[in-house]
Amino acid sequence: MYWNERYECMPEEELRELQLERLQATVKRAFFNVPFYRKAFQAIGLEPGDIKSLDDLHKLPFTTKQDLRDNYPFGMFAVPMSEVVRIHSSSGTTGKPTVVGYTRHDIDVWAELMARALVCGGTTRHDIIQNAYGYGLFTGGLGIHYGAERLGASVIPISGGNTKRQIMIMKDYGSTVLTCTPSYALHLAEVMAEMGVSPGELKLRCGIFGAEPWSENMRQEIEKRLGISAVDIYGLSEVIGPGVGIECQEKNGLHVFGDHFLVEVIDPVTEKPVPPGQLGELVITSLTKEALPVIRYRTRDITSLIPGTCSCGRTYVRVARFTGRTDDMLIIRGVNVFPSQVESVLLEMGGTEPHYLLIVDRQGALDTLEVKVEVSDSLFSDKVRGLEELEKRLVNELESTLGISVKVTLVEPKTIERSEGKAVRVIDKRKI
Ligand SMILES: [Zn+2]
């Protein structure tokens, strides 16, 4: 049930002592080895010795993705390159990528955290893990891979793409666990249905999905179509990669591995902490990383802290499943809109596929939102009247959820482009 009970179920008081000790060491490491941090500390008159308790965390300056870009490629590293054994980077779809480095010890910690995560998510050493996260500069593939090997499970390093081969291997090798993005899991289910392969023919029983926000309804859809139990895993390359947190079998929020990461949820505008239960931006401080310590890293991911303890026995703090990213948040006529809200409505209503595209434009001074939605095969062959009714119901439901007027365009099944990694859900023409 646990990979490392001593840390995963550590009494809270003891955990806080360990966190403080590790925070102080991290602050020193950053101050003395990274010019960026030394300057940032000096600018506000802060010295490492000023961090005397965990409550002093708020005194520390934030770190942003832009700071990593400004110090591209290796300027944020706290160790000489001779100690760096691995380099990963973000995709860099907007501007320069962010580059992250790992010492041998960092890789060791990462494998430990991923082994914990896999066990927490329901995997054992007897599982055959089909790892369909991309291998390469992206941290997903190798992160899961090292954790699976540490656990002692059998890992198939298939990487993303080549969907028909994925399904053949899944069937022939008897894969029991699938790891990939939730949108790719859904795509796999779709292709499987086309190939006439039913979930009953597979040994698949569990899915560990992450790297993009996905709704509770999406979980139920994937669980139904693949006949599995699906959990949400969280991580980001700037912090370590996958393995920052994961859901346990309670599926009620993600446990964050508190002996390695400190988390806060702040109001992204005022930068002050928000109370548990209230949505805000997740901020993470690494506690053990050597090559790239991050202090109060602004993840831009939107979540809330979940109060209370979890019945699984882990004492780690939990964060709610992610609503979206501050980057994905669209401001349309002054209203905040997340693609995940649209996804939830579509899955709840039925008659459509959870493949959709939000197109935001501006006509005169007014922002417009168009939602393109794929209709289910069965409905598409239906009468025009049925489609008109569906469109009307969708408009009503979306308008009441989002609080703005929406144009709905129904499109034929399988016409919205599928993704093998992170799905593209928004086209914002106001920016083009
Ligand atoms: Zn739990």
Concise account of the structure shown:
The chain is of the alpha/beta class. 32% of the residues lie in helices and 25% in strands. The longest helix is centred in the N-terminal third of the chain and has 22 residues, at 12-33.
Give a verbal description of the structure.
There is one protein chain. This protein has 432 residues and is of the alpha/beta class. The chain has two domains: 1-325, ANL, N-terminal domain (Rossmann fold); 330-428, ANL, C-terminal domain (GMP Synthetase, Chain A, domain 3). It is built from twelve helices and 21 strands. The protein has helices spanning 5-8, 12-33, 35-43, 65-70, 104-120, 139-151, 163-173, 182-194, 216-226, 339-349, 377-380, 384-402, and strands spanning 84-89, 99-103, 128-131, 154-156, 177-180, 206-210, 229-236, 241-247, 254-256, 261-266, 280-286, 297-303, 305-306, 318-319, 324-325, 330-332, 335-337, 352-363, 366-375, 407-411, 426-428. The strands form five sheets. The protein has a nine-stranded mixed sheet with strand order 4-3-5-6-7-8-9-14-13, sandwiched between helices. α8 runs parallel beside α9 (216-226) and α9 (216-226) packs across α10 (339-349). It is globular. The relative contact order is 0.11. The mean pLDDT is 93. Bound molecules: zinc ion.
